[in-house]
Amino acid sequence: MIMEAEISHVPSKDAKKFNRLFGKSMRISRHDYTFVWCTDLQLNGVGIQGLCDSESKTIYVDISKDVEETVIHEIVHAEFYEAGLRQRHDHDANLEEQVCEILAKGLSSAFKFRERK
After folding, report:
1. Which CATH architecture group holds 7-109?
2. Which is higher by pLDDT, 71 or 113?
3. Are 2 and 44 spatial neighbours (Cβ–Cβ below 8 Å)?
4. What are the angstrom distances between the C-alpha of 13 and each of 17, 19, 26, 49, 55?
């Protein structure tokens, strides 16, 4: 959940290309998350690669960075939220970030993404 945060981005002119690669949205644990393909993605004035806003069911991805790895990373964050793990009293945000990083690196190297026709 993004509380009192300012998200800023520049919409990408290449959104159609990334929609063909990944789709406009993705079903994650009974919820549709929408992708926002952008450049210059920032959270509270700090540049970031991606962001999963679980409240609005939106995944922001800066296409100037490693897109495949970022998409997987943010999907894992969404799964943490939808599984109720982020809401637990003993939730460890650092551990969640480490798990997202490990899975994103491993899975992005295992899969090759191609445009859908």
Report:
1. Orthogonal Bundle (1.10)
2. 71
3. no
4. 9, 12, 20, 17, 26
Per-residue CA distances from 88 to 80, 81, 94, 96 (Å): 10, 10, 14, 12
Around 68, how many Cα atoms within 13 Å sit in the side-chain half-sphere?
Answer: 12
Distances in whole angstroms, Cα of residue 116 to Cα of each of 16, 18, 23: 11, 10, 9
- C-alpha distances in Å from residue 44, one per residue of 17, 49, 53, 73, 113: 28, 13, 14, 20, 31
CA angle 71–42–5, rounded 5-degree value:
100
Give the DSSP letter string of 62-106.
ETTS-HHHHHHHHHHHHHHHHTT-TTSTT--HHHHHHHHHHHHHH
Tokens for 18, please give them: 């990334």
The amino acid present at 46, given as its one-letter code, is V
pLDDT at 1: 46
Q: Looking at the DSSP assignment, which residues form a beta bridge with residue 31?
A: 28
Tell me the chain's radius of gyration from C-alpha atoms: 14
Average pLDDT of the chain, as a whole number: 89
